[in-house]
Write a structure and sequence with these properties.
The protein has 451 residues and is of the alpha/beta class. Helices cover 24% and strands 23% of the residues. It has 11 helices and 20 strands. Helix 1 packs across helix 6. The longest helix has 17 residues. It starts with 10 loop residues before the first strand and ends with a strand.
Length: 451
Amino acid sequence: MPQDLSRMSTRILRIPEKDLGKFREDEGQEKLGLWEVSQNETPGIKVLREAAHYLKTKNTPVAFPTETVYGLGADSTRSAAVKSIYAAKGRPSDNPLIIHISDLGMLRGILTPENTTNGTMGSGPDRIPEIYKPLIERFWPGPLTILMPNPTPSKLAPGVTAGLKTFGVRMPKSPLALSLIKLTGAPLAAPSANASTKPSPTTAEHVFDDLDGRIELILDGGPCPVGVESTVVDGLCDPPVILRPGGVSIDELRVCPGWEKVEKGYKDHSETGKSAPRAPGMKYKHYSPKARVVLYEASSAAGKDGIQAHDVEAFIEDRQSQGMPRTKSKGLRVGIIRTRYWKPAAGLRCGDFKKRETIKKEVDHETQETIELDVQEAELYDASGGVSIGKLMDVSIGEDTRSIAQGLFSALRELDRRDSDIIFVEGIVDDEDIGAAVMNRLRKAASQIRS
């Protein structure tokens, strides 16, 4: 039986991503064929062994880092363990889960029907569809999820696929994740480790904020370097389609043999209807903070230079129409997330910025690369500039797409932590790199969109 989620004590265990394992590279060994966990009993390996034993024996998920976002993992072959993911997140049961593998040997094992031994290289036809091999060669391990046919009978718990005849699978790049999966001895079903509909977590602290008391273990490997979830593709149809944009762009996919005509198969707003989504993130509102989010598209002429003052006034009037005071006793709290063109305050009237804070988070332990959130606070005035109505909180997450992707979820969470009532976001053009993934997440988070 799943444990009582309300009674758990949540621990964060720090694990340096050094000397945790590697792929075997013997002569004749298939690339990515076998992940080997380090034999050195470092403190990090000992914690991973503890976590793997927990995953084998408990029906409560464990949070762990990948290169995209933190995942909430459980043994994908045990129904009770998989159900605990849905319980901890408050996730709809018709939203399928992605499984995470340590190597291609583990993938072939899952593609082999239950009670069948024929699944490894050299013992029959390869069960990995040919259409995916160019993608595996180029993008794995990394932020790409592929849809595979689910064999009958399947080794996966029914809750993983949510009744579909396919399952999503990826091989994460993080050595910590790969070693945890290998030590567990089974693929880990792992959606993002956040409460359902909330912004995805890119640090262990984000996970703790959402799931404290709902899970027992959070493995802290530092901030995630990509910052948005994996791209999900379906190559079992013709032409192939992208079901969710993410860390691999459509242009990168199109240079791979068989993927030259890949099409977009997703909507940027939550899909409606009774049918189950084909991939995570397609049907339900996702990535949303507590505050109302207003997104200004890059194509919005009205928002080219910043926020329209009437948007703030409309929010205040909406509060009044619901019987709420025009502003709270502490005043209205307005958050701004800037990217490329908006100036500080984004056109709103405010006093001098008196409080400034640069929040730095390391995203690559080897290169010491960091992401920075430049947060400023000032007194907020009405459109006339003569009446104080609250506080303005201004966050810059950089100008290049990679920095924006890395900082987006952290910025939404930071403004939520500062108790924002409404957050205005400057969108970016979504036809480059992972810009499509950034805008897809923002459109799903937004309560209103200005285009």
